[in-house]
């Protein structure tokens, strides 16, 4: 898919951190020019941290427009992770300095109109399964969302020592679950996610993708 479609600017949109037990969900939106030089551009999950960190400033420098937005744990707990992901994506699109005629959303769902605010009714959307690996603008959005969120979790690691946020970025790995059993949740944990609180109440599963 080209970065312009029938004269319209195309924004790629993707999220990071949907399946985490702690921290916000992040969404990136990127409009790339028709010609750019971003060697190795692909799904952020397929790149090393060093490669993502090298690509992120290059994406920002070459993009026609880009934005990253967050939705925080309290809101995730209140409206659920799927709705929070839609909200983060809509916020990222709303903060682009150029209006895209088309938004390509990674996954199998588009953003509900209720989240789009002034963009509702004006923005055409397409969902693209596997778009983070096949649509360059979505790949770029995934990298910006991932790197921004990772840097934030590095800061939280210093604010909340003992959980290992800098290493696992809030995902439910064994060392994180062990820390939760020892320390209990901190202020950035998603309290409605399974594994955060020591009870058997049915809780959200932060499954990847849309």
UniProtKB/TrEMBL annotation:
GO terms for biological process: DNA replication, removal of RNA primer; mismatch repair. One of its GO terms (molecular function) is manganese ion binding. GO terms for cellular component: cytoplasm; ribonuclease H2 complex. Transmembrane segments: none annotated. It catalyses: Endonucleolytic cleavage to 5'-phosphomonoester. Keywords: Cytoplasm, Endonuclease, Hydrolase, Manganese, Metal-binding, Nuclease. Manganese or magnesium. Binds 1 divalent metal ion per monomer in the absence of substrate. May bind a second metal ion after substrate binding. Its cofactor is Mg(2+); Mn(2+). It comes from the Bacteria. CDD domains: RNase_HII_bacteria_HII_like. Residues 8-205 form the RNase H type-2 domain. It is an enzyme of class 3 (hydrolase). InterPro entries: RNase_HII, RNase_HII/HIII, RNase_HII/HIII_dom, RNaseH-like_sf, RNaseH_sf. The keyword Nuclease applies. The keyword Transport does not apply. Signal peptide: none annotated. It is found in: Cytoplasm. Its EC number is 3.1.26.4. Endonuclease that specifically degrades the RNA of RNA-DNA hybrids. NCBIfam families: PRK00015.1-3. Belongs to the RNase HII family. This is Ribonuclease HII. It comes from Solidesulfovibrio magneticus (strain ATCC 700980 / DSM 13731 / RS-1). The gene is rnhB.
